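In the previous chapter we treated chains in isolation. Here, by contrast, the input contains three separate entities that must be folded as one system, with a combined length of 1127 residues.
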Amino acid sequence: MSDLAPLLEAAVRTATPLLIASAGETVAERAGVINIGLEGCVIAGAYAAFVVGTVTPTAGYGAAAAAGLAIGVLLAVFSVVFRRDQIIVGTALTMLALGATGTLFRARGDATALIVATEPVTRLPILSDIPVIGSAFFAQPVITYVAFMLVPVLWWSLQRTHLGLSLRAVGEAPEAARAAGIRVTLVQSGAVMFGSALGGLAGGALVLAQAGTFAEGMSAGRGFLAIAIVALGRWRPAGVAIASLVFGAAMALQFVVQALGWRVRYELVLMIPYVLTLAALGAFGRGAAPVMLGRPSVGD
Amino acid sequence: MGVRGRANGVVSPDESGGEPALELRGVAKRFGDVTAVEDVDLAVSPGSVHALLGENGAGKTTLMRLAYGLIRADAGEIRLFGRQAREHSVQQAVRAGVGMVHQHLSLVPSLTAAENLVLGAHGIYRPRSAEALLRATSESSGLRVPHDALARDLSVVEQQRLEILKALARGARLLILDEPTAVLAPPDIDELLRWIRDFVAQGGSVVLVTHKLREALAIADQVTVLRRGRVTFAGTANESSEEELSRAIFPDKLDNTVSAPSVAPGASVVQADRINVADARGAQRIRGASFQLHRGEIIGLAAIEGSGHRELLAALSALRPTWSGKLLLPPRIALIPADRAREALIPEFTLAENVALHQVGRRRGLLDWDALATRTAALLQRFAIVAPSPSVPARTLSGGNQQRLVVARELEHEVDLIVADNPTRGLDVRATAFVQEQLRSAAARGAAVVFHSSDLDELLSIATRVLVVFHGEVRETGLDRDQVGRAMLGASEAA
Amino acid sequence: MTLELALVADLSQVLEAFWRGSLGTSSAFFSGTLVRAIPLAILGVGISIAFRAGVFNIGGEGQLLLGATAGTVVGLHSAGLGPAGLVLALLASVAAGALWAAIAAALRARFGVLEVISTIMLNFVAVNLVSYLVRGPLQEPTRVYPQTDPIPMAARLPRLWPETRLHAGLIIAIAIAAAAWWFLARTAAGFRVRAVGASPTASMVTGRVNVSRVTFAALVASGGLAGLAGGIEVSGVTYALYENLSPGYGFSAIAVAILARLHPLAVLGSALLFATLETGALGMQRDAGVPSVVAAALEAVVILVVVGLSGGVGDTSWRGWRGRAPRVQATA
């Protein structure tokens, strides 16, 4: 199975932004807020990384997270503090980010050909020599390792810290949380901003570890896919990681199809992740959602 | 101060130990135009039970939320164990040694008992130490709770114990219990009251918020009565009479002892033959129930929370199909649901629209809004609902007038069956009397009324028959309080 | 030229470009702005109905594309049918849009899938589907351009004004807005839509309304209108199917509906406003070098401002609508 190794490697690489974004969305949704603006965070992060990434990759990632955070602040103010409809506000923020990045990008005029140096692969000694999965999992850019490290960290934070307990309590029973002295608005705002910053970081990974350049609308629904991934992963970090890998593989198919020269229409291959999402949501996307997900939060 | 010392002999106010656990001076709170609490003084002596009495909406809960720091007072002074609480917050109240158990229990259903116990702390969460804390608190207080169960799987009694344990684990020396007996069956009430006496005997203090006079007199050392946000009585329990307190609670005492209508039961309107009813998740909540309801009867459905009575009421109002068995229902059914703002009305819709909402699922064609407005106006007149016009949003009406509107809409035309779930919850004494009177007169006109009330005394005062639901089983009992109470807990008929 | 330079260079030049592109000349208004308002209005009405029922149809874009595709296919095969061909093409576009939305509606009703996610996913599927069709099965015979053959004359909407591109879709849009208003304000079914959106629980318990049927129908109806917008765009403006047929109408229409506070008649006005914004932005791009995508960002800002200031997306109660409510003495 010599075909498997490149597919797996591409899948892991493609899964990275999905995993980062959906890890962040998991936090926001466990606190009861659905962030439809996540797509906007991804594109804003991608653009910020594209502009700042020419300095150093680290600065690029920082700028990407900051751009996502900025959108998160808006969502927190509108939907958490002022309790406006989360879905409408999120949709508007995504439109805003897509429009604003498009405007800025086009206004640069000369920048279309600009390429940002992508992050080099860091091979982990010994592990990367394992056949098939070695190069897929252990010869990746640092951001991929960061993404996969997020999973246990997130699990531990949700299950083994009081902040995690508070966050889950806020998403399930905000009144009870308030009675226990938890500041609901603060926790929800924090969760949304954290999730948005990770959404921005996901956009950064897309540019700095994958594409090496920016294109209008290059987020291509990754933020929305991440929201679906969270539901498919049953709002649990490990489930979200597995779902991200599956979707990464589905998106990576396009590269593989090109590389292998299969005679399948390119447009049809591009459709796969979205069709897969619909099918998977229908099959597994039920149950275990935080009780308060999507509902306006109760003020402090 | 008239404290009956219990734990450490007679406590006099000038001893340092006599510093009140909670002291309110001139406390006031307004919500918009509504004065919830006005110029209230109150002092809770350590080692005593202080009953805070008053009817629904008198401001008892608001006052205690102020004391606990959940809301901030507009005026006045709050002292906890002798120290003034500035910039009062829940955190500060907890640090000072105050714990509050809310009427609507506030546990997180998806967290375990131990997780709920330590909710709101900081740093790293260690399940083992939380469980150890639960066990230790449980042992020292005598309140037993399974430590690894999820809160949603605990019984109501266990949930309440966990709430008290939460407060104790945070070092509470003053417990504020808001209507703790409302959700309990009589034997559980007795047990809780015994526990409260033990707790104060060991030096703790309790504020017992209740609207039940007898309960207050049975257990309290001191009594404060609130009416419309003001103190109308303050004194020691053994020096106050039931009559005196009753006058303080009700502005103009209505005769609450209207005897049940002596209409002979008529033809049967509901026949249930071994019916099973499932809840929304498919779990069987009523099993093999058989009964008949007749015209002219007022059937009280007594049950503790989670017994399956909600599902039975849903089946009787044709909202939920029966799983098996045969249930014959009449064509014309009126429904007064438990949650007014979520189930019975759309608060943002106008009164006319809320009238139009009634069974709109069965309507076709056009709605004649002029006719609906006229009809609504007629209902406002006929049922004495205070509202400026049919085109104001329902949310602008007081709770009592909203419930009157619901009753008016459901009873606009004669019906065969009325299904009501806690129809007087949260209403003032007048609105309560109105609703009860409407149910009685509808029964007298030939409807069968079936209703549930969490207040067993209210239930017994209106019902002509009582059906008790326990763990999915329905059985008939007499109108005797003890008998009903035992049946609500599934005790046998004996004794 | 950088953005900063473009903006600072000459603001009056930019504004003038905006004016020329949108309202300044009769051709800009009748052939550009008004034509662009037609799909926005039809989509906006559909989105208003869905939002009123509490269903967040973010999939107008995909439903429009499916409608455009079906309209094109039927239109291409309608030679010789005369005006019936046009009617069939528009009906096919309604059906296709409704069917596309029905996928999301069924996923919601059957499996509880959030329609926000499913309609967005269906947008991406639709975009790729159209790309595939215009490069594959539906591509014009010379196989040079990624588009279909033009539809025959008979399948095209008549022009309202000979010298302009303004077509009869305008009349359809106005009629649809009026019908939607009448439906929501006067019929029992329309009241159910509003009630379910305002409180599904009260609708079920007190209204005995089949809530999932109402939300299903609202989403499907909304998709049908989006499909119609696509069909009208093909038969009135483009006469063929190609990629990027819609410059994001499905998303702009969300802003249209929200600014109109989900009121079908107000949608007409707000559609015109956003069409002005968009054609003006195109004018700015053409004459002043300001990227036209700035319009999308502005639309988002409008949504945020409206939702931020008003606290909701629509007036749930329509007491102002039916007038002549009799005055009633307070009964105290």
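The first strand of chain A starts at residue 122 and ends at 123. The mean pLDDT of chain A is 87. Compare these points with the single-chain example from earlier in the chapter.
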